[in-house]
Specification:
The chain is mostly helical and about 600 residues long. It is built from 26 helices and four strands. Strands 1-3 form a two-stranded antiparallel sheet. The chain has a two-stranded antiparallel sheet with strand order 2-4. The protein is elongated.
Length: about 600
Amino acid sequence: MTRDFETGGWWLRRVVPAAVVFVFSVAAFIRASGYGLVNFDDYLYVERIPSGVNEWFSDLSCGIWMPLTWASYALDRALFGVRYGFWHVTGILMHGVNAVLVYVYFSEIVARFGHVQFLYEPRNTLNTRKSGSAVFSIIIALLWAVHPLRVESVVALSSRKDVLSLFFELVALVLWLKDRRDWDVIACGSFVLGSLCKPSVMTFPLLCLVLDAFVLGRLDLRRYAFPAAFALFLGLFAAYQQKAGGATVDMFHEGLLPRIVDAASAFGIYVRNTLWPQWLAPQCMKKFPMMPRLWQWGVAVTALAGFFCLWRALAYLALALRQLRERRLVLEFARRDLALAGLVWFAVAIAPMLGIANFGFHAFADRFTYIPAIGLGFLVVAAFELPARPMHRVFLCAAFAAAVAALSGRSWHQAGYWRDDGALFSRTLEVDGEPNAVAHASLGAYHFEFTHDLEECVRHFALAEKQDIRFMMIAYNVYVFALCELGRTEDVPRLLERFREVWDATTGGDGDTVLDRRFRGIYAACEVAYLASAAASADRAERALWEWSSRGALGGAQMTYLRWRVALARGDEHGAAAALAELSGHSEGRGYLRFRYMNKKEKGAS
């Protein structure tokens, strides 16, 4: 290594390729450095940053235990305040570091294959293997890093947990390749740190198994004792987190058969979107028995991939069983199957997010491919092994370089949809179709806050209510606010009754869970806004406002907004002006409500 360093070879083979990967990975998403927050959990996370280390480790309000992710948000707030563009830069730079780790990971793997050659170089030299390793690994890292499916994970502030958890998981995977006990201890430590960012890293031991069995050909079962035990604990703890945070909700319950059909469709759609990233959007909803767009592709690809994996894995399974009967703890596999490794890696890593377990209401989401798509890098290596002639490898290299350029351009375009809620959820409706209550509710909130178009706001909320009122519960207060400001209050009592019915059906309505507290605050805001819509009930509105606030149901900018509405109902122009000025001065809002009246010149206008 000293000689390589002195002659510059070390820089050319290590630092320069890593720098190229980092720069291209960052450049594809840097336009997001000028973006703010979007109503896709960004507000939820930014507003709820726990205040100290103890709370980082005890908070489950978002349904995910993620103390290190909270620490990351807290650091951004301390450094940048509400300049959210810099928060985006943090995520983009972290993604660039992850891309470099993907490069390092595949460099280590490809360098182990002495038969891999690149272009016209002889296949039996050490330098050939190293240069080939660098070229292959740059291609693999960039195909992963600049793919449009990465946009949601990199650009959405709420997806910081994906980027941060993958960093620790990749460090663990790189160290696992060392195949030494001292490095294994550090790898397991990195695995544990990744679990403090997001529990989806629970698939780490299975990914190591895929690597050992199908790529390296040697599986030492003794190394898996701690990773397997901790992954099992992490899976059980993740289920508890979802339940405690209100993410596993009975009102979104589906039977096993619909979940299997949705999962089969989603897996194939992920593969299809990886190969042809045309229809990408966040939060495409489950609509069974209505099937998601491209579901035919999904089921067909899933069936073909499943048949291929089963067929190719039978030989491995038979050999493993034979060696286990001999009570061997170190299994040896003579053959390597990179294509099988890539598909199984993808399936294993994405399995927890396919929806077999009943949580959330997404049919599929781009962010879920952040870790699984790394496995497809094995398919790239396999592609370079197939051609027998050097010119074929030149063609493949040119084709992959063109693919990187095309994917970068597509990612730049896709990132543009995240500039604001209007663009993001309008695109969601284009991709997922009109029956998407979540997108309509989000567009209703967007028009209430940013365009001030109350008619359009109410139209979207009415569509969401018609499709499925359950999926607009978190924005119900904004719907009622818009109706009250328009003076169309005749439907509000019915809406309040329906809200209470869904609340009771979901949680019982009298508990003190995270979801109960959230619904209680929304119901309280709706009730006060309705009472404040008429002068005759202004006194009742004021009493209700202070009663609910004393019970902790109301606070922040929403409390100030309701004080403004009550003051208007009482004819208190001075109080209305003071509340409006205070509302405009909020540095952060809760459930929006800090933007709508910031540019109003007429201080008391409704």
